[in-house]
Structure formats: structure tokens, C-alpha cells
Amino acid sequence: MRKHLLFILLILTLNLAAQNNVYSPYSYYGIGLPAPQNGVFSLGMGGIGQAVGGSTMVNTSNPASYAYNQKVNFEFNIYGKLTTLHDSAGYYDFKTYNFGRMNLAFPIGKKKNTGASFGVMPLTYAGYDMQRKFTTPLAHTDYYSGKGGVNKVYLGAGHSFNKYITIGANINYLFGNLSYKRTTTFDTAYINNYYLENQTIIRGLNFDLGIQLKAFKQTIKDSIKYRQDDSVYVRAGKHKAGQDSMVHIKKYAYRKDNDTITYIFTWGATYKTGSNANALRDVYGVTFKDYYLPFSAKSISVNDTVKYSVDEKGKVVIPGSLAIGFSVSNQHKTDGRNNFLISGEFDYSNWSAYRNYGNIDSMHESYSVRLGGYYKPAKLYRTDYFNLVEYRMGAHYTRTPLMMRGNTISDYGISIGLGLPIVFKNHTSGIINLALEAGKMGTISNNLTADNYIKLSLGFNLLSEQWFQHYKYE
């Protein structure tokens, strides 16, 4: 067990030190573009999570689901993205990747109705390098570049009062660094150019409060097809060595045996509080004449310093959100098999409340709609590997908080995914999760940019029923 803990701590440390990479002009606004707030298992189903739960996943979308984590579950995700930016000047391709979230979920107590989770994950990404030309009031060019993002470390727990009601909560510590640079150069030599550099450190807290409600409907199914144990071998003649050749005949039959199938209807909701985060920023603004590219504090010949501050205290107000969802799934009484899940959800956030040192941004109310689910054959009479694979599909539409030149910036896409089970020794198993998503954000109308993307995500879950157990020898 010590080796597992050391491995987990090492991975968490590496994740905190890793640089987040993204490239999109829309990450210029607010605190950046939102990062996935659930695992790869969810991304393959459109990002659903409010009405989902189980021991094979760490569902951070709704902390009430931790109650179903009755196995120790360690999760690690990696995200890759191929972006094609399309504007009036042409097409530009970028490849980026990110180390995703890392989480640990585990049971609490012996009643198997309480679970907990902690981990670290990105909240937002920022990365851009762009320019805009203006002809009025004077001909000039603005150059913008930035990077960084906000991460969060969370600790949460979920508890089931009975099979109908489950609640949970997270406490989240937000931390990050946003770097912003802007350069304005005029076409005439009689006017000084301007350079501004801003480094902001953000620290704050917020909370997630979740609930899941369930209802059940049972049906009786007869004549279940089982794999029989009395398979036979038949003689198929002689081969070259002169010995009998035996062929294995697998027998299947219908056996009169009642199997109760329970259909599970789940409603889920999560309220995420806002955060009035503390911030420290360093600001450096100067005028200049001579320069060389790329722009930086070292590439310009400073004429005059017009703004300079170090460790300037302030607040960054991050709004909260509300999400609700519904799902239907099934479960067989004989062996606990689960064949399918279908889910939909809606979430809302009022980003017009966003403030950065008292300043507003081009932000407004936003919402998302997600649909998705999975199918797993799990037939009793089949023993092949693909009988145990989860096949996933989903779609999402998001009206982002951005309003630019009269255009609401939307993000929409479809996704597919796989859940590939693996088995190790010593009562340890795992799941490899794959998700592929294709989507589009933005538009080329009114000289804006369309962000066409393909995301490939890889997740790994390691599960064990023996971790943290103490053994006594007599």
C-alpha cells in the first residue's frame, strides 16, 4: 500500500508543476476557457454527470455520487486537442495537450453508504497570441498574448441515507496564475507605442453541494440464456499423427429461471457557490519607440514608465452555477449486471457577475445542455472481452459567457467513447477510458474566429477492494 500512496503523491506533485497548454483567442476573456470538470468516462457521453454514479468512476460533477465509491479508485486523465482556427485571413492549425485531473475516491465506514474523494484538476485554461489592426482614430495594431489558468484542489464526501436519497459536498481551493501582455504600435513615428504586462495570482475557495434522488421499477424476465457447464467434446477423426482429434462444442440453452430487472430513475442536482477570490497582481506599463519582435519587456527601448505596481491586492469574483440532470438505467438482480444508461442535463451560470479588480468583461449569462449514455452487452452466455466493454456516445451545446460584436459565442459538439476493463492480480482491476470529441466554438461573422477542434482524451482508473485494509495474523 505504501508504494501505491507514494505513486499517487508523485503524480499529484507532477500535475501541479505541469504547464497547461491551450490555444484559442476566446481564452483571452475572464479567467480562461473552462476545462473538463469530469473524467474521460463522462467526456465520451457529452459531459454528463449529475445523475450518474458508480464504483468504477470518480464523478466530481455531483459529489453525492461519492457514496457509491465502495472500492478505492485512483484516476488519472490526459487530454489532447487539435485546433483549426478559421478567420478572414485563413486557417491555422495548433496541437496542444494537457495533463488532466487526478483523483482518489474511497469508502468510509463498514455500512457501505459513505464515500469520499480528493484530487486536483484544472478549472480553466488560457493561451492566445493574436493581433488586431485599426484605422481609427489613428492607424495602429494591437498585439495580445497570454497564458496560464486556474486549478483547484478539492476534498469531498457523499452519504446515502437509503437507496432513494444521497447527498454530498466538496470544498474547493482555487489557485492559479494568469499572464497577460498587450502591445500597441502606431503606424506613424510621431506617436509613442505602448506596452502593458500584467501578472495576476488568484487564490480562493468555493463549495459544491449535490443531491441525487432515485426511483425504481421492477420487471420479471423468464427463460434467461445461460452458458451451460456440460459442454462436450466430439471426435472429429484422425490427424496426421494418427491420434483422435477432439472438437469442443459449447452448449447454450434456455433455462426457466426468473431474473428481476430493475429500472433505475435518477434525478441529480448540484449547486456550485461563487468565489470572491483574493488576487495579487504586478502591472508594468511603458511607452517606447524602438523594438524588435517578439514583444517583451526586454525587446523594447523604454521612453517612459506610465504604470508600475507590485503585489497590488484585489478581488476576482467568479460566479456560481446550478446544474440539474436525469438518467435511466437498468440492473439485473441475479448478478448485478448493468446494460445501459441514458442521461440528460442542464446547467446555468450568470457570468455577468464576473469582476476582475472591479472591472467587467464581455461576459453574460451562459448555459449548457448535455445528452449522453452508454451500452454494455454483458450477456451471461458470452465470455468474449467485448461483452464487457462500455460503448458511449453523447452531444453537448453551450452558450458560452462571451458576447462579441453582437454575436453570442456558442460551443457545440458530439463525442464517442469506450470503457475498456482490465484485470490485475491481488483483487485489483482497472478501466481504460477513451473519448473522441469533435466540435466547433465561435463564428467567422463580423471578423471573429471559428475554433474547430478535435479532442482525444485518455483516462485510467485503478480499482481495489484491499487498499487501506489492515490484516491481523495469529
Describe this entry's structure for a reader.
This protein starts with a helix and ends in a 10-residue tail after the last strand. Strand 20 (407-423) and strand 21 form a beta hairpin. Helix content is 4%, strand content 63%. It has helices at residues 2-17, 40-43; strands spanning 33-34, 72-87, 90-107, 114-134, 140-160, 165-186, 193-221, 224-227, 232-238, 244-249, 252-255, 259-272, 275-291, 300-318, 321-332, 340-350, 355-356, 365-375, 390-404, 407-423, 428-442, 450-464. The mean pLDDT is 87. It has 2 helices and 22 strands. The chain has a 14-stranded antiparallel beta barrel with strand order 2-3-4-5-6-7-12-15-16-18-19-20-21-22. It has a two-stranded antiparallel sheet with strand order 8-11. It is mostly beta strands and 474 residues long. The chain has one domain: Beta Barrel (Porin), CATH 2.40.160.
Write a concise synopsis of the structure shown.
The protein has 474 residues and is mainly beta.
The value of Rg in angstroms is 27 Å
Q: How many strands, what sense, and barrel or not for the largest sheet?
A: 14 strands, antiparallel, barrel
Q: What is the domain total for the residues? A: 1
Quote the CATH topology.
Answer: Porin
Mean pLDDT: 87
Low-confidence stretches: none
Which percent range describes the beta-strand content?
over 45%
CATH A-level architecture: Beta Barrel
Strand order of the largest sheet: 2-3-4-5-6-7-12-15-16-18-19-20-21-22
Tally the helices.
2
Query: How far is the N terminus from the C terminus?
Result: 21 Å
Strand count: 22
DSSP helix fraction: under 10%
